[in-house]
């Protein structure tokens, strides 16, 4: 249970922090990134310092019984304020914050800093001689000054969770949100909802002690797993909101490069220079170079492209049952393959057959490249063309019958 409740969320939060750390360092002036880094760092500190082993170690090193209590309460309070700072800063957008928003941020920072400052004097005034590693909240629930300190951090945490849930709910309902951001906000909303359950469980156990009843299991057995699940959702929400669009864009770039590979390899057989390989080139730059190379070679192949062959290949593809869009791509692939063969032999199309307009190919290099992967379909179309399948038409999709 200790491994699940403390170690797992610590690892997940640390991974989320490591994912965002290079961007935070590079763009330190961005208030959104600073807020994200602060929340993740404080959340990691909470689960490290609030584990029973670390609490016992801090008490032993200082020689003061239960001195880890105000440390843990201060970290939880700071993390609660950081949650609000993140949402307010995030909601203000990258274009800057208004005077009212900056005033709210200052009030939140000052308020939670004051709560942290009050917790230490309350601990010094409290009489807590017996060390309690797991159940300090309920064991000292009726102890003067310690009672107020416990109630203070629980209310600060609960109020922050309520405000965060309300802000996130209103934000999720707004129009025009990116899908990644919307799902990230939903995960964060679930995380703060679970944090509210954590506060409610702790507070219920404390109130039960005030009433002379024993509900310590809510504080020791229910609250820690709920808090760990909340931390995991926080890490997932932050990663999904901030890293999801970037990873999705990179995936689309790699996918487009992969789709263009067959046409790129075919264009390299023409004997022209290939795209220079640069180790530090970004995926976007490599994609741009590949697209430019393909279009340049297609322009040089324009005098070897045969419109008549393309028209017959298009009608053959239609006769074989391919839909018009795929038929156009397959016909263009057949025409481009034949053009590369003519270039090797130096044979031009017949004078009666005008050259194929390359502008269609330049716009649709993606579908043409995907069509080159369908080797069986291309072979069937070429066989049909060689056997005299000719109904008329062209690569633009129009058909004419004699």
UniProtKB/TrEMBL annotation:
Transmembrane segments: 6-28, 35-55, 67-88, 109-130, 150-168, 189-210, 222-240
InterPro entries, sorted: DUF6545
Location of the DUF6545 domain: 250-349
Domain of life: Bacteria
Keyword Transmembrane: yes
Keywords: Membrane, Transmembrane, Transmembrane helix
Protein name: DUF6545 domain-containing protein
Species in which this protein is naturally found: Streptomyces pyxinicus
């Amino acid at each position: 249970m200790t491994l699940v409740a403390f170690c797992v969320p610590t690892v997940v939060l640390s991974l989320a922090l490591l994912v965002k750390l290079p961007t935070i360092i590079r763009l330190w002036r961005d208030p959104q990134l600073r807020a994200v880094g602060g929340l993740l760092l404080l959340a990691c500190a909470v689960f490290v310092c609030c584990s029973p082993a670390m609490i016992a170690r801090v008490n032993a090193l200082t020689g003061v019984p239960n001195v880890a209590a105000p440390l843990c309460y201060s970290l939880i309070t700071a993390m609660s304020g950081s949650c609000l700072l993140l949402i307010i800063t995030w909601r203000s957008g990258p274009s800057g914050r208004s005077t009212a928003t900056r005033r709210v941020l200052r009030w939140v920072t000052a308020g939670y800093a004051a709560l942290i400052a009050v917790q230490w004097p309350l601990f010094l005034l409290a009489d807590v001689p017996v060390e309690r590693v797991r159940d300090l909240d309920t064991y000292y629930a009726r102890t003067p000054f310690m009672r107020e300190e416990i109630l203070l951090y629980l209310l600060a945490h609960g109020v922050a969770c309520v405000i965060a849930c309300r802000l996130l709910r209103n934000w999720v309902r707004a129009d025009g949100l990116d899908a990644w951001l919307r799902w990230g906000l939903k995960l964060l909303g679930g995380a703060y909802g679970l944090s509210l359950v954590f506060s409610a469980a702790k507070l219920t156990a404390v109130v039960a002690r005030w009433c002379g009843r024993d509900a310590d299991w809510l504080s020791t057995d229910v609250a820690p797993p709920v808090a760990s699940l909340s931390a995991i959702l926080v890490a997932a929400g932050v990663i999904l909101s901030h890293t999801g669009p970037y990873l999705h864009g990179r995936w689309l770039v790699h996918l487009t490069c992969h789709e263009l590979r067959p046409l790129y390899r075919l264009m390299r057989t023409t004997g022209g220079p290939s795209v220079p390989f640069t180790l530090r080139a970004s995926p976007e730059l490599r994609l741009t170079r590949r697209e430019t190379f393909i279009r340049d070679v297609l322009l040089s192949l324009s005098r070897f492209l045969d419109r008549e062959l393309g028209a017959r290949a298009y009608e053959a593809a239609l006769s074989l049952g391919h839909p018009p869009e795929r038929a156009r791509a397959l016909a263009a692939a057949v025409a481009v393959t034949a053009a590369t063969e003519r270039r090797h032999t130096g044979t031009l199309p017949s004078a009666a057959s005008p050259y194929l307009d390359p502008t269609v190919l330049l716009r649709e290099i993606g579908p043409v490249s995907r069509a080159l992967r369908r080797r069986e379909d291309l072979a069937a179309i070429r066989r049909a063309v060689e056997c005299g399948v000719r109904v008329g038409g062209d690569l633009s999709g129009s058909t004419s019958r004699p």
